[in-house]
Amino acid sequence: MELVTPATPQDAQALADRLGARARFIAGGTLLQQEWDEPRLAPPGLCFINVQAWPETQRIALGEAHLRIGAGARLETVRTHALVLAHAPLLSEALGQLGALGVRRLGTLGGNVGWGMGDSAPVLLALDAEAELADGTREPLERTLLRPVRPLMVAFHLPRADARRPVHAVFEKVGYRAAFSPGRLRLALRWRDAARGRAVVRAAAGAPGVSAVRLHAVEALLAEPGPRPGLAAVRGACLRALPPPLALIASRLIAGHCGLL
Ligand SMILES: Cc1cc2nc3c(=O)[nH]c(=O)nc-3n(C[C@H](O)[C@H](O)[C@H](O)COP(=O)(O)OP(=O)(O)OC[C@H]3O[C@@H](n4cnc5c(N)ncnc54)[C@H](O)[C@@H]3O)c2cc1C
Predict the structure, then answer these.
(1) Has residue 50 been placed in a domain?
(2) Strand extents, DSSP E, the chain
(3) pTM, whole model, 2 decimals?
(4) Which of 2, 112, 183, 196 is the most buried (most CB within 10 A)?
């Protein structure tokens, strides 16, 4: 096992490109360790690329139109940050349901999104987040998550929202039981306005084994004029992106939140 700390994000991406399947970006390591047979014994042959050495990937700052959250920011820092509470309260709320304090203090937002199945990914998709990559370019996070090989993400950019431009959204995390248990489904919905109802503009979901995705068919169904769709139609739309058991859970949540039941 090898651990390297490149001087810049660009160097880190170049190294990962060169090493291919041998490379692993590592931030807090809280998720990666779970893949190892022995928690303190990383598998041989891998090269871990430390992505926590650059100050610009740790900062949270407000731009003219966007809130920029460094991918290396720790989850608990993101959850409690005043700018996040003001401009992306849904993200703060979702992180409040993630793991225990120890995991949130070590784990990072970049690691949670990099996993693809973490709690924050559907929220960021519902909020139209963009990913900033190592070369400084920005692209919709949806596109980044669909890439066959996930690139290094340096930061996330979320449209600003505050009292003048409120966001009407909800995050649902479904588990097997009320006590701490692995999440079964994460779902985020965003509405056009405070009236909510079926005026959903974004729907996104993720789950263990299912990388976070936008539910485009659900968005299209709810945008159709005419009689309100029933639960079966919502389930059919969920099935376009989710396997049947998850589509069943998601459709019930969506129908409930949109007043379709
Ligand atoms: C007890 C326990 C409970 C947990 N509970 C939850 C929970 O409730 N919800 C949840 O979502 N997760 C949970 N997790 C999983 C994990 O801790 C979190 O997802 C955490 O955010 C991972 O962040 P990290 O920095 O530790 O990632 P790492 O383990 O360092 O990396 C995770 C993945 O992301 C990649 N990665 C890291 N940084 C980047 C980057 N900047 N760009 C691109 N890829 C990157 C890595 O290569 C790896 O594939 C839990 C873990 C534990 C141990």
Answers:
(1) no
(2) 2-4, 23-26, 47-50, 60-62, 66-70, 130-133, 138-140, 153-159, 168-175, 183-191, 200-207, 210-214
(3) 0.90
(4) 112
